[in-house]
Amino acid sequence: MTVTSYYNNKKMPNLSLFSCCVLPGAFHSSVVGMFRKSFFTFETDPLKADLVVFTGGSDVHPQLYGEKPIAGCYTNERRDEYEKDIYEKCLAASIPMFGICRGLQFLHVMNGGKLYQDVTGHAGGNHSIIDLDNNEIVNQVSSIHHQMCRWDASIGMRLVAVSSVARSKHYQTYNSSLTPAANKTVEFDNGATVLHIPGSVLEVEAAVYPATLCFGVQGHPEICDGDVYQAWTMELIKDFLIGEVIDVAKTIPNKIKA
User: Fold this and answer.
1) How far apart are alpha carbons 195 and 130 in whole angstroms?
2) What residues have CB less than 8 Å from 229, skipping those under 6 apart?
3) How many Cα atoms are found within 13 Å in the side-chain-facing hemisphere of 91?
4) Cβ contacts of residue 13 below 8 Å, gap of 6+?
5) pLDDT at 191 over 80
6) Per DSSP, what are the bridge partners of residue 136?
7) How far is Cα 95 from Cα 93, in angstroms, rounded to an integer?
């Protein structure tokens, strides 16, 4: 099946019932501004928030997923330790966590996943993604990263969106480099629809980890002011918090609204 419908909503959802704690990182003020547009209130203490937001920035150190860094991997171990401590506290308190770019990669690693330490074709420019839940194309998605989550269903990871075309010419790990074969397609079966996506790798653009109440996006919606990608991301956050992505009623029962 080919996806032909497009997500074209630009209206930000009203999430004034919820609070968030936005952690330091890339485009911090823009992330705060994006959440403010959906009327979140803000907490400085992660353990008092309904949602903790892990932002973009330096590479997650490969030692956290059992690899050595390759040349061009720029890490910040102090940040890794700081965010790991917050992750563990939020996990123990059943507080939902949302990641943007590095934030998604960090949460992926915390859930047992691994990263491609370097990929091509994503450090600059916009592209389209496929919303796998709704079989819609979302355009003008920001792309400024060189690392990427490696799809792994065995860790309880659920794909929400993938790049509509595999953009990278290589996917580098510590000890291997995957070069996609020409004229190949990769299949995704979500139970209702089977999609065939050009390329050899499902390039992760959004994912959910239900067991730990983690989810995130690979792009930077906070710098897509007024764009559909920003509205799409905030709708994903809304759907997660009201329990339409997974059942989080046990986490924030007094705030669940249809």
Assistant:
1) 10
2) 138, 139, 140, 141, 142, 219, 221
3) 15
4) 38, 231, 234, 235, 237, 238
5) no
6) 5, 131
7) 6
